Amino acid sequence: MNAIDENRSTNELGRSAAGQGDATAPLPRKLGRVGLSGKLLLLTISFVMISEVLIYVPSIANFRLTWLQDRLHSAQIAALVLDATPGHMVPMSLEQEILTTARAMAIAIKRHGTRRLRMMSDAPPEVAAHFDIREMRPLKAIADAFSALIAADGRIIRVIGASEVAGSDFIEIVIDEAPLRRAMLNYSGNILTLSIIISIITATLVYLSLNWLLVRPMRRITHNMVRFRQDPEDPGRIIVQCGRSDEIGLAEQELAAMQKELAGTLQQKARLAALGLAVSKINHDLRNILANAHLISDRLSGVPDPTVQRFAPKLIASLDRAISLCADTIRYGRAREAPPERREVALAALADEVAEAAGLAHHATVSWVNAVDAEFRVDADPEQLFRVLMNLIRNALEALESEGHASTEQDSIRLSGRREGTIATIELSDTGPGVPARAREHLFEAFQGSARPGGSGLGLAIAAELVRAHGGSIRLIDGTLGATFQIVIPDRVVELRGKRAG
């Protein structure tokens, strides 16, 4: 069964290593036919046209009012000519010529409360609409302007305006609206032509400037991201910064930093995968060698020599730890841990079992202190909690047995536990030399957090992974004698509805 498990681990690690170097992943789908540049050009033209329309609406109304005021001004001049003649009488031919010049069918002036008709063509016109431009509101002026644009030819209108003739209240004229409508259409055509020219010029300038400032750098960044994705471990695919100090330069700077970090991480993962694959290949032979050594040590333990009897237990314990380390290495190299099967576990009894398995219960120089109450329980997977405690106790024992620590009669490993509501807290402490500063930064990372020479750091990495699977956390408490690790495991969330139904 061990050989089968090891072969399965070898296959899993091999697949993991192969996945790290896979550069054949499909590229993202191509962008649509209208790229960012085309969309930018269309939006610029559209916005300029909208702006021109917003300008055109009041300008056409103002053009109409100006045109009508010009007609009223011409009518006032005609009225002044009439007033300057003797008896205010002019020949009919001259009157018609004056009306034609003023482009009016009738002219009337109200003076001292009396409205007097000064001139009129032969046939009295039928007025279709009346407009008073003396106090014309903007919205009313705009509505009247568009009404003139859509009106049919031949509409006769009556226009009233302020008079500049001395002693007169106002002046009114009756005119044909067709010339006004033609003038407004010509003005609209000129505005449209000018708007199109301005839109094209503005859009071209905006397009060229934004294409140079934004679109081209974005294309460069996008092309680099696609190229980097094909082989993220190649350092030559990291983007070369253009040196800009704006947002584009900041984006390139952050992208380059991210790519460098990702490339380094992938290279490290690939090396770790290769290392795990190599370890899994030699694991079977190594365990056979250690098993043979274990059998020999068992036979040595039966030799009545006092020296052999003194060193045989330590030799057997060391071999057991070496075999367990090989098993932990292969177990960590697998894809993932199984989900915890949680139930209430008596921590005190489980801890004593772990201490017995670790050879701590009858250790010659290190004492085991189980300060956990017999009724204290943790909602956890007993097998995984056993492994967590085993790794922590094994690390503590190795620290106390290390050459850099002077053994004393007070050397001990102590376990305590407490509960705060639904949170169970477990603390394991020792009186060893503590965790060196160089190991604290990557304490729970595999192959990086070892606190002793030759260590792999797998014990704490496995413990942290199992605790996180329970929704908890593990940390090293600062300021304590030796090393103290704190494990926090919350209880499972219970569905009250299901409990009540049960």
Detailed description of the structure:
- There is one protein chain.
- With 502 residues, the protein is of the alpha+beta class.
- The chain has three domains: 36-192, no CATH class; 233-335, Helix Hairpins; 337-501, Heat Shock Protein 90 (2-Layer Sandwich), CATH 3.30.565.10.
- It contains twelve helices and twelve strands.
- The strands form three sheets. A five-stranded mixed beta sheet has the order 2-1-5-4-3. Strands 7-9-10-12-11 form a five-stranded mixed beta sheet, with helices on one face.
- β4 (156-162) and β5 (168-176) form a beta hairpin.
- The chain starts with a helix and ends with a helix.
- Mean pLDDT is 77; it is low at 1-32.
| Secondary structure tally: strands | 12
Give the end-to-end Cα distance, rounded to a whole number of Å.
41 Å
- Beta-strand level of the residues, as a percent range? 5-15%
CATH 2nd-level architecture of the largest domain: 2-Layer Sandwich
Low-confidence stretches: 1-32
Number of helices: 12
Shape: rod-shaped
- Give the class from helix and strand content and strand pairing: alpha+beta
From N to C, what is the helix and strand string? HHHEEEHEEHHHEHEEHEEHHEEH
Provide the CATH topology of the largest domain: Heat Shock Protein 90
State the name of the first-level CATH class of the largest domain. Alpha Beta
What do we call the CATH homologous superfamily of the largest domain? Histidine kinase-like ATPase, C-terminal domain
Tell me the major beta sheet.
5 strands, mixed
Average residue-wise pLDDT: 77
Rg, Cα atoms, Å: 48 Å
What is the domain tally?
3
In which order are the strands of the major sheet placed?
2-1-5-4-3
Kindly state the percentage of residues in helix. Answer: 55-70%
